[in-house]
Design a protein that fits this description.
Number of domains of chain A: 2
Structural class of chain A: alpha+beta
Largest sheet of chain A: 6 strands, antiparallel, barrel
Shape of chain A: globular
Distance between the termini of chain B: 19 Å
Number of helices of chain B: 8
CATH topology of the largest domain in chain A: Thrombin, subunit H
Largest sheet of chain B: none
CATH architecture of the largest domain in chain A: Beta Barrel
Number of strands of chain B: 0
Helix content of chain A: 25-40%
Mean pLDDT of chain B: 88
Order of helices and strands of chain A: HHHHHEEEEEEEEEEEE
Oligomer: heterodimer
CATH superfamily of the largest domain in chain A: Rod shape-determining protein MreC, domain 1
Structural class of chain B: mainly alpha
Shape of chain B: globular
Strand order of the largest sheet of chain A: 1-2-5-4-3-12
Number of domains of chain B: 1
Strand content of chain B: under 5%
Largest interface: A-B, 52 and 49 residues
Order of helices and strands of chain B: HHHHHHHH
Number of helices of chain A: 5
Low-confidence stretches of chain A: 294-306
Chain lengths: 306, 172
């Protein structure tokens, strides 16, 4: 016992001990969900990002320029591909217009309430990436929209390819985005689990709650044994979990097998979006500034989707 | 060079870490190589200036990184950058450190930093990958980048951080 007291009397060791305890407390405290940050955090976060934005974009353009010169040969092939895509898009557009009109008419006929009609009127707000984290285990990036622009934690962030992540922490002018590669069913922080379905089979259901770093794929669990989900399907968010809005592309199914406990199936999903070298992303803002979490209570897998 | 250049240079390094260098990393290595140039500078400060300078550089830039990229939690980088740079200063301050010894210490410090960061994230269940995987996936490639950077800036860094008298002694 006297040994211990003598150790504590050593001032340096005592300070070290206190520092460790303080940091452990800070880490634990800052781990969970926090809607409002304190003013020192806001001040430092916004000031640093304000300076970072002068560097990130020009660097990106320069890097892109060299990339462009290198990939000049591929342009022809890419052009060809885009042409076919545009042709397909034009055809789909015609169909879409027809279906949308019909949808409107049917909604009128069924006397949809205004709130129900506007349920899927998501606003896609463009945001520029200003900096990326240099910690492989905390790979957040910053976008130039913050709480003054109506951004709140847990809003989905997408690129033109698909879902990228969730808004993690919101500063007044900037916010951090946590990519979906940080999905982790054990963690209290990081991205939230995605309740998903597929484009091909609207009735299938699964929960994407993990990311397998070693394979570079998302893991979709809790798929019923008789679920029609099959390899090659395009996975989209189902909107049932309450966090992610309906219809955002997540990726494609790579494989499907029996899960850990043998009762349900597990699928590996290749993410559709690239998580590196991002310029612009879109934040999906739900209508009426509805809280992304507000609808959580309604979420039940068995329920029919509107 | 003058010591009043130290702070702007460190700020510039921090900005390079988080904005320019990520663009230069090839796509296949993205998310695996992480530049920690400010941390290398903090270690140089510990080796050639004094441990208090190293501690302050580590704490301040660690805090900047923690808050700017606040994703999971705060404090990891502040604690690790501060303490490891201080430790390097405590062990080598006032000693003559040759180039190879300096590079070795920096490599060791970077390894310790990444490994300890992994340990903290693992303890708070933020990550669940096994250590062997993280070691090969991100720690080892980052280590090469950091050591390469340390080698590249060895001469200017030493000139910047070393007090004037000792350098004069050496030249005589």
């Amino acid at each position: 016992m006297s040994e211990l007291f003598r150790l504590i009397r050593n001032r340096k060791l005592f300070v070290l001990l206190i520092v460790l305890i303080v940091f452990a407390a800070i880490m634990g405290f800052s781990l969970g969900q926090r809607d409002n940050l304190t003013w020192p955090e806001n001040f430092i976060g916004d000031t640093v990002s304000f300076v970072q934005q002068w560097f990130y974009k020009p660097a990106g353009y320069l890097a892109g320029l060299f990339e462009d010169i290198r990939t000049m040969r591929e342009l022809y092939r890419e052009n060809e591909e885009l042409r076919t895509t545009v042709a397909r898009y034009a055809r789909d557009r015609v169909m879409y217009n027809r279906i949308e009109l019909e949808n409107e008419r049917l909604k009128e006929a069924l006397a949809f309430k205004e709130r129900q009609k506007r349920m899927f009127d998501y606003e896609f707000v463009i945001a520029h990436v200003v900096a990326v984290s240099n910690d492989p285990l905390n790979p957040t990036f910053k976008i130039n929209l913050g709480s003054t622009d109506g951004i709140r934690p847990n809003m989905a962030v997408v690129t033109t390819d698909g879902l990228v992540g969730l808004v993690s922490r919101v500063f007044p002018l900037y916010s951090t985005v946590m990519p979906i590669t940080q999905l982790n069913s054990e963690s209290v922080s990081g991205a939230r689990a995605i309740s998903a379905t597929t484009m091909e089979h609207g009735e299938s259901f699964g929960v994407i709650e993990d990311y397998d770093e070693q394979r570079g794929m998302l893991v979709m669990n809790r798929i019923a044994e008789n679920d029609p989900l099959s390899v090659g399907d395009v996975v989209i968010t189902s909107g049932l979990g309450g966090v992610y809005p309906y219809g955002l592309v997540v990726g494609t199914v790579e494989s499907r097998q029996v899960g850990d406990f043998g009762l349900t199936h597990t699928a590996y999903i290749k993410p559709a979006a690239d998580f590196d070298k991002l310029f612009e992303v879109f934040v999906v803002v739900p209508p009426d500034g509805e809280e992304p979490d507000a609808r959580e209570a309604e979420a039940e897998p068995g329920e029919a989707r509107p | 060079m003058n010591s009043r250049w130290i702070v702007p240079l460190l700020v510039l390094l921090f900005l390079l870490d988080t904005t320019v260098v990520p663009w230069l990393i090839p796509t296949s290595m993205y998310g695996r190589i992480a530049p920690h140039f400010v941390f290398v500078a903090a270690l140089y400060a510990g080796l050639y200036a004094n441990r208090h300078a190293a501690l302050f550089i580590g704490l301040i830039f660690g805090l900047l990184q923690d808050i700017t990229f606040y994703g999971h939690m705060l404090g990891v980088h502040t604690l690790l950058m501060g303490s490891i740079a201080y430790l390097a200063g405590l062990l080598f301050e006032g000693k003559r450190v040759s180039m190879f010894a300096a590079l070795f210490v920096i490599a060791l410090g970077c390894f310790l930093y990444d490994a300890a960061a992994y340990g903290i994230y693992r303890a708070f269940r933020v990550t669940h990958e096994p250590f062997e995987f993280v070691l090969l996936h991100s720690i080892a490639p980052s280590l090469f980048l950091q050591t390469g950077f340390a080698l590249a800036v060895y001469v200017p860094a030493r000139r910047l951080f070393e007090p004037k008298e000792t350098r004069a002694d050496e030249e005589e």
